[in-house]
TrEMBL record:
This is DNA polymerase IV. CDD domains: PolY_Pol_IV_kappa. Keywords: Cytoplasm, DNA damage, DNA repair, DNA replication, DNA-binding, DNA-directed DNA polymerase, Magnesium, Metal-binding, Mutator protein, Nucleotidyltransferase, Transferase. Its EC number is 2.7.7.7. The lineage of its organism: Bacteria, Bacillati, Actinomycetota, Actinomycetes, Micrococcales. It comes from Microbacterium hydrocarbonoxydans. Mg(2+) binds at D11, D101.
Length: 398
């Protein structure tokens, strides 16, 4: 006998863009793009015109020339996220954060105190709208996987309940791309075998799926297609990280110098991600000021990535926010960590991404570095600079 639908997946809608529209009423109803070089977020008005997260900025402006492009405001997004997560934790202590704008909540033990899972979900959406001024979509189901799919299907600003008795009716007609772990490459393999829906995959034997996709991926996606997802909401979930840092000494550094050092660090970390077939969700900036006090500033991406341009955009935004404090206190160390790592082949992009020339450039640079050494190719901005900037970057942890 299947259990009750008590898992909520709560996902803020077009989070960065929604915060911008909330804080600037003149942007409401207009297409908004957050980030210039790479689209970090797009409002639903911009998405309707074809703009997608992680699209190149130039392509986005060609598709939607009347879009308003705004600079990312990490502090504002972080504050909004903290406000929303405080609401989550006020509703239930069992909260598993996935990123800055989404989380799982387990509400199975709250019926006497707070009502049914559906009533809790309705109240959660009302509170986020009233207290944080943001729209949020919520899926409610027996498992984390089904709850996440339900919230995605309900977007924007929706609520969907998947009762245990209609799980097959809900899931099996959906395209295989809805399964965690089925990205573009895996979907293409399945399509070649004529498998386009979850139901068609579920009809296969597990061994057949494993032969098609490899043992790990095949077993994983086949289990999900058969509605098997035993993972509980995990409030202690942690993932690994990779990081590097640079000791800077005591003499003052200009914003240009810091940007070049940051770029070197990010270039190498992003190459390490791709070399290990991994992606990250969170970018962490680590600073040690002139008085040797340490701080970290972090931001979680809406979608996991291994693209240098996306990571660098986020790291630069974090550094820009810290520059006034650096000017006052000095800086003796600069570091970057990439955390919430996952295997690249287990991540399903929620929207189509066409990296085009940028992805090819990352691949060419990785090949050159692997073949001829990390110093064989440099950015033009680093030419003629102090050779000391090219000294080895110390690994922080992994």
């Amino acid at each position: 006998m299947r259990g009750e639908a008590t898992v909520l997946h709560a996902d803020l809608d077009a989070f960065y863009a929604s915060v911008e529209q909330r804080d600037a009423p003149e942007l409401r109803g207009r297409p908004v793009i957050v980030g210039g070089g790479v689209v970090l977020a797009a409002s639903y008005e911009a998405k309707a015109r074809g703009v997608r997260t992680a699209m190149g900025g130039r392509q986005a402006r060609e598709i939607c020339p009347d879009a308003v492009v705004v600079t990312p405001r990490m502090d504002a997004y972080s504050a909004a996220s903290k406000e929303v997560f405080a609401i989550f934790r006020d509703i239930t202590p069992l909260v598993e954060g996935l990123s800055i704008d989404e989380a799982f909540l387990e509400v199975g033990g709250l019926r006497r105190l707070a009502g049914t899972p559906e009533q809790i979900a309705v109240r959660l959406r009302e509170r986020v709208r009233a207290e944080a001024g943001l729209a949020i979509s919520v899926g409610v189901a027996r498992t984390k996987f089904l709850a996440k799919v339900a919230s995605a299907v309900s977007k924007p600003d929706g609520l969907m309940i998947v009762e245990p008795e209609r799980e097959e009716e809900f899931l099996l007609p959906l395209p295989v791309e809805r399964l965690w772990g089925v990205g573009a490459v895996t979907a293409e393999k399945l399509h070649r075998y004529g498998i386009r829906t979850v139901g068609e995959l579920a009809e296969l034997e597990a061994a057949t799926a494993e032969r098609m996709l490899g043992k790990a991926t095949g077993a994983h996606v086949h289990a999900l297609a058969r509605l098997r997802d035993p993972r509980p909401v995990d409030t202690t979930r942690r993932r690994g990280s990779v990081g590097s840092q640079r000791a800077l000494g005591k003499h003052p550094r200009s914003a240009e110098e810091l940007d070049l050092i940051l770029t070197q660090i990010v270039d190498r970390l992003a190459r390490r991600l791709r070399g290990g077939d991994r992606v990250c969700r969170t970018v962490v900036l680590r600073l040690r000021f002139g008085d040797f006090t340490k701080v970290t500033r972090s931001h979680s991406l809406r979608m996991p990535t291994d693209r240098t341009a996306v990571v660098l955009t986020m790291a630069r935004a974090l550094l820009a926010a810290a520059l006034p404090e650096i000017a006052d206190r000095g800086i003796s160390l600069l570091g970057v960590s990439l955390s919430q790592l996952d295997r690249a082949d287990r991540v399903q992009p929620e929207l189509p991404i066409d990296w085009g020339d940028e992805a090819r450039l990352d691949g060419v640079l990785d090949t050159l570095s692997d073949r001829y050494g990390a110093s064989s190719v440099s950015r033009a901005a680093q030419l003629g600079r102090d050779p000391g900037w090219s000294s080895p970057i110390l690994p922080e942890h992994e």
